[in-house]
Amino acid sequence: SSGINAEYGGGIIPAHERFQHYITIAWAFSTVLGIILFMAEFGLICWIKFWTASKAAAWVATAILIPVAFIFLGFALHFHRSLLEHKIEEHDKGLRELDELAHNLDNFPEDSVDSTTLMAGHGNTQHV
Known about the structure:
Elements: E1 6-8, E2 11-13, H1 15-18, H2 20-51, H3 55-106, H4 115-120
Antiparallel strand pairs: 1-2
Helix pairs in contact: 2-3
């Protein structure tokens, strides 16, 4: 097998599918964790700026930021779950199509096809 694709059960799994877990982890760290850290930094800046002027303003900034963080996390989880559901539906659709093709091939009458019909598509027609 090559360095790009891996053999699995007689088939080849593309790199983007083999590394799906790593891609998901990278997405979580870069997007979700990055925005959470940005919001934490924003809260810290609010505390530093407002602490000397008004402690109530610092608490209000925190009270606003916490629900925003939970809303963001909820949206991120919902978005990721929707992507996974779509991927599962697409794989199921592909498997159903393959199952239907296999069923059609199993039920295909062998005597309805002769050698001239098989060879016609390849340009090597022989009339016997």
